Amino acid sequence: MKRSVQWVLTLVAATGLAAASPAAHAATPSGTSATSGKVTTAHACSEPLHPGAPVCYALVRTDLHALHDDALSPKATPSGYGPSDLQRAYNLASAAASSGGGATVAVTELADNPNLESDLATYRAQYGLPACTTANGCFRKVNGSGQQGNYPGGDTGWGTEASLDVDMVSAVCPLCHILVIEAGDLDAAQNEAVSLGAHFISNSWGTGDGSGDAGADADFNHAGVVDVASTGDGGYGVSFPATSKYVVAAGGTSLRQDSGTSRGWTESAWSGAGAGCSSWEAKPSWQTDTGCGSHRTVADVSAVADPATGVAVYDTYGQGGWFVVGGTSASSPIIASTFALAGAPSASAASVLYGHASALNDVTSGSDGSCSPSYLCTGTAGYDGPTGLGTPNGTGAFSGTGGSGQATGPITSGISSSLCVDDRSSSTTNLNPVQIWGCNGSSAQQWTVASGNTLQALGKCLDVNSSGTADGSTVDLYDCNGTGAQVWQPQSNGSLLNPNSGKCLDDPNSSTSEGTQLQIWDCNGTGAQHWNLPG
């Protein structure tokens, strides 16, 4: 929906960190300056492209010189946090290695970046990530009508934003597919993203918070879809669409390595993170803080956004190559991609987070301004405005499982504890039968209860053949692809429900014969459908 909005711009001056480079553990490319001095930044989108247009929230480090890829010293790593840093900081390394395959994360952009795919290839090659291209089906760029070509006019600021977005999706969820929608109407782009199969959408942009946004709310309301938006970079204050009750509002932190902590990292609320009360959006039922009365409070969750502890990005359209960037433009795709690792939750995304806040990293220091009550602008135990409920600590809070969402071991039969769910002959060929077999501790029987209620062995997922829904449809091993054929929801009676078919994982005729291939069948509560999961 197109709408007339009021746009407000606040410039942020980032302060430096004494001797605190975010990539201090890695080599610094020749031609870049150290981060020990004053950190200076510039908004990638310094002004709206036209009156009433949204602005992107990318903040570019200007005290560091952009460096082209061929200027990197041998074995040097670009300044700024890279994929392994972010995965370690947020306990996502295990999930990133095995989850998200086939899931699509969409990013929405107001203008074209003609170099986006080639620059993404450079970023992924630098960090050893698998290729993500149009040719292999991983990368797709479309206009607001869902077609390739006829994109909006180019803009270097939005080009920088687009590079940041696709690089952060790649960093957190290397196996995810990436859909880039370049459109003049970013509200309507939500509907286009959903129509093209995206279940996770990141919006690193915003407009002023006003009652005119109420009409656009519906564009962000899609069952089974996680829509995330940046809260802004102007400190205390809010923007749309982060204020929408249908959106997960992503705030921002300063993220630093700290070997003196058990986590190895510390975080504080970033001074530029948007936070506070919407002037018009009613408070959702899952949000119970009192500081905003009956209105929506921002943020819900957060990730790194401080440019002084920023992320590495590669862009040759808006920048000169490698550079460091921050802003809540970084936190939005990080959060959307964490949801993709976890799988789409059965309930609304934000309500799942609020029900599992203990599985997040609580951020208890830092501030983005002055306010009353103080928690709306100050990091504190529990919920606060700048960082919401906290930052990712694995995928548990995002899938609704709590904890890290990961446990590995054998799945034993309810008929006999000596029988295990087994990948026949330890084969990783797609459609390889999954059977019962005597428990032997082999890798063919090591199943990970992973994010999104998937069961994974040897890097692949337990799968209903051809997404079957009929009694007797066989079960096999297949590339993880985020479809309903690979979702197995544990039930209180020990059964594993496949919601796509409405049926349960079943041992045909309660067989105890080794080599019997498993199937799905009407749920009946018998021992043939009782499975003991690891952990």
From TrEMBL:
Kindly indicate whether the keyword DNA repair belongs to this entry: no
- SUPFAM superfamilies according to UniProt: Ricin B-like lectins (SSF50370), Subtilisin-like (SSF52743)
CDD domains named in the record: beta-trefoil_Ricin_laminarinase, Peptidases_S53
Q: Name the keywords, alphabetized.
A: Lectin, Signal
List the molecular function annotations (GO) for this entry.
Answer: carbohydrate binding; serine-type endopeptidase activity; tripeptidyl-peptidase activity
Signal recorded as keyword: yes
Q: What is this protein called?
A: Ricin-type beta-trefoil lectin domain-containing protein
Species name: Actinacidiphila yanglinensis
